Amino acid sequence: MSMEVSHKITSSPRAACFYALVTFDNRHLPAVISHTHTHTQASSGTMRTLHPFLLFTLAISAVPVIVTEIEIETAVETASSVPTAEPRVVVHVKPHSNEENPKDTPKKSTTSPSKGENSKEKSKDKPKDKSKEKSKDKPKEKKPKEQKYFHEPGWDAESGHYDKRYFQGKVPYEQHRPALRHLIRSYLTTFRDLGVETWLAHGSLLGWWWNGRIMPWDYDLDVQVSVATLAFLGERYNRSMHEYEYDLDDEDEEDVFTLDMSGSSANDTDWGRESTTVKKTYLLDVNPHYVAMTKGNGANVIDARWIDTSNGMFIDITGLRERDAERSPGVWSCKNNHRYRTGELWPLRRTEFEGAEAWIPYSFDKVLTDEYGPKSLVTEEWHGHRWTPELREWVKVPKKDPPPESKKEKDKEKDKAKEKEKHPSVNDKAVESVIVYEEVIVEV
């Protein structure tokens, strides 16, 4: 705008007010105010006329300035209080993209992701090391929950009935029954002196039922006690040694009966031999896992043993307890799941076993039939032995010789093998083949 126009506008109050109202130009307000002030004294009528316009002009011109300042201050406060989000690039990776192009890696974003996201992405990208997982799982599979306490040589059924610590070799068949006899006598005598309650069980109880003796094919003995008795033995007599003396009499010389197929049934034995005193040491060893309520992995179903330290033969001792007294009161069982009612066990019956005082369950017949079946009380042939009522003894049945017919067949097979050796398929005379038909040679 030129100077002349500006002077005309400022020289005329009405024009200035009109111009300010139309253009909202604040630059002319001071001129209007000053010009109005100089002419206030000259003309009061003019002042009255200009006063409303001045007030209106001042109000209109001040609003944009105030609003602008408020908006600027609010914008500045908002910008200072609210942090601006930095630009970030998000890369979407398709499934199995790393397997298709293992060398291609996504571009780095302008802002580094957090540690948690980094670890997650690395765990996704890196293939799992199966060898490490297997190595972690292997020790769990190899190591059982319970380590076996008692150990046996155990390469066959017979060697599994010796304690490995005292094993000196297999006891011959003719000697193992006398060794077991003194083993059970020493046990029953010692426990009687200690005032400990125990009774025959399993195969030993079955042997008692037949003739009050150990069955000749049995290589170990079985007894039972209560868990309270096991706790008493563990506190007072665990791993204690007990000496036992006995006289080696004629009964220990030959304790094997062999059935004579010709008709006689007794062995010829020298009954005039003098007796000799023998001293042996036996170990009472209580398994620390006897407190376990369940069978577990089956490594410690035997709770204690009475062991002959001279040869490693032993008596298995298992403890009975009420394992679920709330749901099954009066039911006693061992860790090998043999169950008995209270009335089937107590009161115990006093008897004799292998010449020593012994105790058996009250309902021994039911206990035996539940475990072995009814036939176990009537079957008279078992494990190569036959029950002889006259002797009241299990007699070993000798192995029968093969019939003569089978010998003839073996001789024929030997003769045929010799003929084949004499007549090979190609001989020294350059004959292509030789066929043998009942010792007749035919050249082709």
Automatic annotation (TrEMBL):
It is a single-pass membrane protein. Residues 194-322, 335-373 form the LicD/FKTN/FKRP nucleotidyltransferase domain. Keywords: Membrane, Transmembrane, Transmembrane helix. GO terms for cellular component: membrane. It comes from the Eukaryota. The keyword Ion transport does not apply. Residues 92-156, 396-428 are annotated as: Disordered. One of its GO terms (biological process) is glycoprotein metabolic process. Its main location: membrane. The keyword Nucleotide-binding does not apply. Residues 96-107, 117-156 have a biased composition (Basic and acidic residues). It is found in: Membrane. This is LicD/FKTN/FKRP nucleotidyltransferase domain-containing protein. It comes from Xylaria grammica.
